[in-house]
Amino acid sequence: MNPAGLLAATLLTAPAADAPPPGTPSDEALERQSTVSFGAGRKDKFGRPGSPQRFAVEIKMGPYLPDVDRKYTGSGFGPYTTLFGETDGGGVATEDPKKGLMPVIGFDWQFFYAAGPLGLGTQVAFFRDKASAILANPTPEDTTIRSEADSVTFTLLPVSALISYRFELLADRFKVPLVPYAKAGPTYALYWARDGRRNIARDDDGDKGLGGVWGYTLNAGMMLRLDFIERGTAKKLDQTTGINHTYVFGEFSFNRLDNFGVGNSISVGDATWFAGLAIEF
Amino acid sequence: MMLVQPQTALADPPTADDFTIQYWTTEEDGSRGRQMTANDLRGYVNKARCECGQAVSARVRLQSSEARDSVPVRTYIGNNCDTAEAGNNRQNFRCALAISDFTNTYTRNIDLEFNPLWLATGVTPDSPRDINTAEARYGCDAQTGDGGIWICVENSDQTDCQVGEFVISGTQTEITDADGNTPALTFDFLAPTINATDFRASGGDGSVVIKWDNSTTTDIQGYRALCANADGTPVDGKGFSISSVTAENRGTVYYTAENLCPDGPFDQVDVDPDPEPLPDDSGTDTDGGTGGDTDGGSTSAAGFGAEPGVAHGGNADCCGPGTCGNSTCIAAVSAELGECENGNEWSQACADLALDYCEVCDGEGSCCAENSTPSCFDSACSVSVCEEEDFAYCCAGRWDAACANRAKDGVCDICDAGTTGEPGMTSGTTTTTTTTTTDTDTGTDTGTDTDGLDISGIQTLDWDYVCSDFIAANASSARIDHLTNDLDYQVLLVAFDYAGNPVPASEVFIATPRETTDLWEQCDAQGEICGTGGFCSCTTDGPSRQDTGWLFLTGLLGLLARRRRTASRDGGQA
Lengths: 281, 574
Hints:
The structure holds two protein chains of two kinds. Chain A is mainly beta.
């Protein structure tokens, strides 16, 4: 179905703006019964009902696995999988690592409205992987190549600047509780690797396992506006706290973090999904 | 001692509130150090200080706001001095007499120093009472409790102090802690009970990691790890020292006499060469005192509970011949041996069975060193020692040094050379464990033993072997860094209580630090996949082919934007 058809179908299935479903009190009735003044007919400068809407905050989580081995073309597993991958009883990697859980917190400044807010924002994420270190010189007497004493870690802290657009027209005007959105922008990912002594890792050349890498992030997802569950409560929330809307959402996230391919840089991006909660205020 | 009263009565005799009692530490030469803090009162007097004869200094003063009766006032050092004086102390050993003078003398500051041994024991019956010449009934044996200065103000015609005449009962101090408690002067000559088991040591990169299971709570305050080279010598760059013998340790340091007074005791007290075994609950009870006692003398007022090892009480009788008052134990033993149904006729055979079948006879401490409990943790060893008539008391009373020596004298395999016979250990071997996966702890034991190695040095617990900072009691692992890869090290974990009494918590392990590989080294080995690090990969290598598309797209978008701005400007001009 093309976008126009999708839009038409959505509009047809959505309830009319002035005709709430049977049994649902009208906005006017809610306002009459409420002790809170809703400010009848109050709209922001873009014509949306409710208090002015300027910002959005979201928290989300999703699986993540940095594609460190992306550039590896040799036989067997790449270095990341060799260390952090699933292992057999002898500590030898046999499968790719399991994805870790990455928490993300994001913030948007919504500076323009065109059938939905256009925003400029940032998000910060965190990822850490840990594994038993590999013995540098295992002996035949060793039943495993792993050290019980030492663990090695790899930590990632991507920070993104994102321009975002949320198509809220249907939700604002026609009470369709779905808001598609997209974000894109540059990302700088700080990373550091620690050795078994808990120090920053170093290779034989003395290069430190510490630095940052540029890249870009593309997010696209769908938000479910939760106002429809209790419209009266949502309006009260807006009036009392300034929170216009609350959402649960899911998104696909594509991260290419390899310094745009320039130079000899680590690659720590991933294509994954996130789910979370968001508010606009 | 008869004192002659020189004056007639002027006013009421002094009470507890009229006296101030203060305590100080002392240096090696006996000179007064700093005044004791609340922490000192609770944990300064330990077995090492007792063995070194590091005196406690005290000051006694009677407030002189009004004229007093000039009556005899006697100052004793010890615990339960009132009941001992009356002759009904369980030990029946009277406290050492420090001062005997009249009221007026006490209105001046009276300073005195006394060996900490006197806090725990009385004088032998035939000994002089004077603290400078008295013979102590017991040495620095496993005892704990509150002791201190007892003051008796004679107010009757009887020449000796009576129970009701003690106005200061050992626990009075002038120190208040942050919680508002006024701790008494505690003596603790008892090694803690080990609460950790399943020790393992493994080698890391330039380090050794010790892990253990820590499931129960005892009086252990913390741990220190000790390291030695394979030949038994201390490791260079390790070791521990204290700034002075009076340094406040706040429970982070252990003491042994060899560490505290390596050149010999600062002071010595004559001790009865043939004392009877200590009763199970000796020294733990200081209440029963008279006026002025604020908390009954319990050592638990601020979290310092009684040592678990002395909690067996009368039930311990089941573990030796005589009587058994524990019905559960009687039932268990009589099920195996019919003649043991009568607890009042408890034979050696019954007692031997009790060691195997009765929980009350389960020892908790070391077999090869003295511990605070009847018997030791290894029941086979306990039976072997206690079945000998001369050592039957080891399972009914306390596993003292003689019991330990007997165990080491070929009676108990667990005390063979190379082991310490501590709970949670396997005789003669040590174990290292290696984790085999990245996410789980499935592992295999690889074992390294100490056979043929000289481990006597590290077992002295000399501070030169200390190679870790303080390790908290609730920890279950410790890492010892700055070791050399591929060299064998002896490692021992020492537990200690708040007073600093140590006990080897683990066996001596042999562990070898081994080099490990981290991500950056692995990347380097597989073609520098991770790059060179740094915060700006601004190299001149140029873009790789696969990403020229991104740069092309960025340039294209830039061109489109410029074209649109140009068109907009042109339109505006039109």
